[in-house]
Amino acid sequence: MTPSPYPWAHVWRSLRLFAVDPVGLGGIVLRARAGPARDVCVATLPDLGLPHQRLHPSLTDAELFASMDFAATLAKGQQIYRQGLLHRPAAYHLCMAERCHSQLAAKLTRSLDEGHSCLIAFDEGAEPEETLAPALADRLALRIDLTDLRACDPPAIDTEELIHARTLLPAVQATASDISTLVHLSARLGVSSLRAPSFTLKAARCNAALNGRVSVETEDLEIAATLVLAHRATCLPAPEPEAEAPTPEQPVPSSALDSNPDQDVLVEAVRMALPEGILPHASPRRAGATGTGAGDARIAKQRGRPIASRRRRPDGRSRVDLIATLRMAAPWQKLRRAAEDHVSVLPSDICLKRFETQTERLLIFLVDASGSAARARLNEAKGAVEHLLARAYSHRDHVALIGFRNDSADVLLPPNRSLVLAKRRLAALPGGGATPLADGLQCAGIMAGSAHKRGMTPTVILLTDGRANVALDGQRNRQKATEDAEHTADWLRASKIRSVVLDTAIRPQKALQSLAHRMGADHVALPRATTVGLTRAIETAVHT
């Protein structure tokens, strides 16, 4: 096995720094599918001085924090608990970390914030947007991406050097100038979290300790910046221009006194660590983004992700949670038990299982194909719909297409995931004629209501310039057409149908902004939209 030396050198260096101070650095995000490369990386991880504990995204609160010891509880007649997985400090191994839901992420972040444990998150996401929860990723200093790497022979681990570095680490000092440099560097790279410069400083101290130094040098800062800040950067600024020398009559500005020439050196080090062309396509992940096409969360009785059980009377459809039921009955056995050979369970003790499921999402594209919009926007709308359909399978989205022109709206594509059928229907979408906006909204509302009854989460995406001129009764009356559209928008809002309005007019229309407000929808003005622009706007609106 002959790997490319530079990427693997980055991996080995990250693992060595992490081994020096695993708790201080929080942990590592290891992005890789199961395979030889990941096995080599895990096998090379030195002894962290902490017990290893495996975690899974489906763990319950009873397993994480505490659970009842039934044998001891029944014997003593009082609740006896055994410790949960997060009770003692450990190096947690979280498999399938990209599937970690927000509740589990919050519990893990709390455990990490206590400063006694660390986390190795195995990110096995197949798509770029399938990543670790932002709050959890922010608390892990290092990130290793093995996506394009082949397995290689790991280097030998120098245990004595590692022990010496851990002993020397408390004595390693950094100057106030070093701290100021890292804070300003994080700001220039577009990193908003204050944990980033703190982790960078800790990594620099670890590197200095590995090299037997008691003070942080520029080399340590460069290595730490490439390992901690490079994957967090959202922009790479140009070098700051040199300030003109002040005249004797002018005082030296304070900003000139605070400037540090090492910042440009560190920026260049981060630039060299980034894959070519990655930043122009990167954008900060918005809070609440799920990264999938999953719709709303709903409570189910038969299947889904297990959540806390509740005491309920059996209804013939829900499943009884035997463990939770025994947990409720166990403390009362000394009072209830008439004989010593059975457990007494009352109806009030019965707990029913509950599950949380994610509904499928339906994107209903309501496209204005009238004469005022068709020439400029119809082709772009077709391209955006086709692009999103191509990604529907991986995002688990269903897509429907409704076009409105002349006197009515037509369902051109019923809810489905067929890319071939979608291309045929899109190619057949004509343009020109009047604008029956109210009928289009009504048709989309009826389809959304039907989808909601089938357990889906519909979202209506309206692409129009807002120039309605056909009423619901077919009259060519602009005033009545506008009133009908407003009344239909009020009905959509009352029906709690999620919607987005993309204003494709050359100049944003106030009437369309008012219509979006009545629909309870986001209004996005796209006067010069292209297929790529429409696609990005739609994905930003519906995936957050």
From TrEMBL:
Residues 238-260, 278-315 are annotated as: Disordered. It holds the Pfam family AAA_lid_2. InterPro entries: BchD/ChlD_VWA, ChlI/MoxR_AAA_lid, VWF_A, vWFA_dom_sf. Residues 300-314 have a biased composition (Basic residues). Residues 362-542 form the VWFA domain. Belongs to the Mg-chelatase subunits D/I family. This is Magnesium chelatase subunit D. The lineage of its organism: Bacteria, Pseudomonadati, Pseudomonadota, Alphaproteobacteria, Rhodobacterales.
